[in-house]
Structure formats: C-alpha cells, structure tokens
Design goal:
single chain; 134 residues; mainly alpha; two-stranded antiparallel ribbon; 6 helices; 4 strands; rod-shaped
C-alpha cells in the first residue's frame, strides 16, 4: 500500500488546472487512480480526502457518481436480458404448426411445445403470472 500511496503522491506533483472560480480540475485518470487507491486503503472517505487534500464533498461526489454509473450499468444489463415478446398470427392450414405444433426455444435453453389453443392460453397465463411475481 505504501508504494501505491507514494506513486499517487508523485502523480500529485503534476500541475493541476483551476477554473475561473479557483476550483481544481482533476483529470479523470487521476480521479480513477484516487478512487482505486481509496478502495484498497481501508480508510474512511473523510480521512482519505484529508490525506490527499481533496475537499470531502468533492470526494463524496466522485464516489456517488461512480456508484450511480455502476448501478446504471447493471440496470442496462438487466433490461437487455429481459425477453421481448413477438406476436405471431397464423391462419389454420397455412403452416406445419397444425400437425406438428409450435415449438419455442428461449435463449436460456427453456423449450415449450404447443399443440392446441388451450396450451397457448395456459402458457400466456403462466408468463403473465411470472412477470408480475416479485
């Protein structure tokens, strides 16, 4: 841990720009390095910010932003993994589904074979029940 702190302290010797109001503009790479070091340090946020001369409110904002980005990423993955339904209508006698039934295979490997309208209604009710169960 000491070598990480030393390398971060050496990086802090670089010139950091300030905006017109005197606020320091920390490069994204430096911010990410500080957050990674914080994760390894075991220090409280306040102690870590004080050690590196960062205002605690700024440091807390960095942590909150990173947490929100991770949460949004997980939500996007969940949304992308949810199944989408496609309505298919057939006219009797126009497809082989009349004698062979309809076979559905989902990406997770689940397979459903339907041979009658009653089975379709049963599967639709099951899917609705599973979708509303929390």
């Amino acid at each position: 841990m000491t070598s990480s702190i030393q390398s971060l302290e050496e990086e802090s010797a670089e010139i950091i720009k300030a905006d017109s109001k005197g606020r320091l503009q920390i490069p994204v790479e430096r911010r990410d390095a500080l957050l990674a070091e914080f994760d390894r340090s075991g220090m409280s946020g306040a102690a870590f910010a004080r050690h590196y001369g960062i205002k605690y409110t700024t440091f807390a904002h960095w942590i909150r932003t990173r947490r929100n980005q991770k949460t949004r990423g997980r939500q996007r993955k969940r949304a992308a993994s949810k199944s989408q339904f496609l309505m298919i209508e057939t006219t009797p006698g126009t497809t082989s589904a009349d004698k062979d039934g309809v076979k559905i295979e989902l990406p997770n490997g689940c397979r459903v074979s339907l041979h009658s309208r009653q089975e379709v209604e049963l599967v639709a009710a099951l899917i609705n029940a599973l979708g509303t169960a929390k």
